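note to self — DONT lose this again. spent like an hour looking for the file last time. sequence + predicted structure for the chain T wanted, 409 res
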Amino acid sequence: MASLPEGDPAPATGELPDSAAVDAQLRSMHAYVHIPFCRVRCGYCDFNTYTATELRGVTPSSFLDDLSLELELAKRVVRSAGLPERELSTVFFGGGTPTQLRAEELVNVLAKLRDGFGIAAGAEVTTEANPDNVDARYLQTLAAGGFTRVSIGMQSAVPEVLAILDRSHDRANVELAVHAAKDAGLQASVDLIYGAPGESIDQWKRSLDAALALGADHISAYSLIVEPGTKLARQIRSGELPEPNEDEQVEKYEIADAAFSAADFEWYEVSNWSRGASSRSAHNLAYWKSNDWWGFGPGAHSHIGGTRWWNVKHPATYAQKLLAGQSPALAREVLDERTRLFERVLLEVRISDGVSIDVVKALNPNASQPISQAIADGLVDAVEAIRGNLTLTLKGRLLADALVRDLLG
């Protein structure tokens, strides 16, 4: 699993610096809840997840008790930091596999967040879901308990590709899960991964066709990244599997964007498409727009007013710290103004709203030349640039990271 970044020591009390409250009324507040349980670990995954044999005595029941302790800590920290009272605008349950817990348990966590912080009217509440462990009753329970959205891990519709990714779910259950979610009144999103070793263009097209046929409200399509230390990385290093082809990755993205556009999906972030603005992931947009969120659970990251921190990774260590009356944070960093502006450019350039040219020039007063070059190269929309905003074209989306490097010198 990926290691956590280095940072400064995090105070055992969890207290925030005075700077965290500056202009807080201009930012929305959100919650992420990390559920670390997985039945099996997929070969490509380096997320902070644990199978039953790796949990060192942590059970779902004890974990939920630990989560409650962090929620109480968060309430104290937010209050003592002088932050304004802000209801949660979104809540997102990720993992791991949140649906390894019973629906009633997820609803109970949501109720505790509602009691502790309040949840805004019309708030988006999402859980990720494995299609094998949700059914109509499960999803109806979530909807009745305040959830509004479910994100289903599809990854591929092709058995051979799923096998390479070590995905064990039944493909038929993806369709059943999407339809059951819609019947329960939930918005449904599906996640796809392209570029698995050996995946052909035709196989990717089959997955796209299958995803579009589901009638989902939202589709995410992510290029496979081979993370060091994963089973997949070892298989590629040993020659058992070929390395993903970068040129094919580009072609697959272009094919996906064309297929989604033809089906009336619109891109709103480099890897995300929705059926109109109301189907976008409001939670992820909060990240991309640098709003505030508290990440609950082992390994979860948080950000409030330019202070970012991350929790210890293992659920047992997470429990030990909380039971000792301490914050589970491992480390933190307080971002200076320049770093915050840099991250704004890095993140906002990826969304369809784009990033303000004024923000770019605040970092690089000599940005006019690279901006002009980006327009000439067809990387950003010329009309939007005249209006003061840098919005990526399709070509620009494929070269977003390189563009940011050029813009900021």
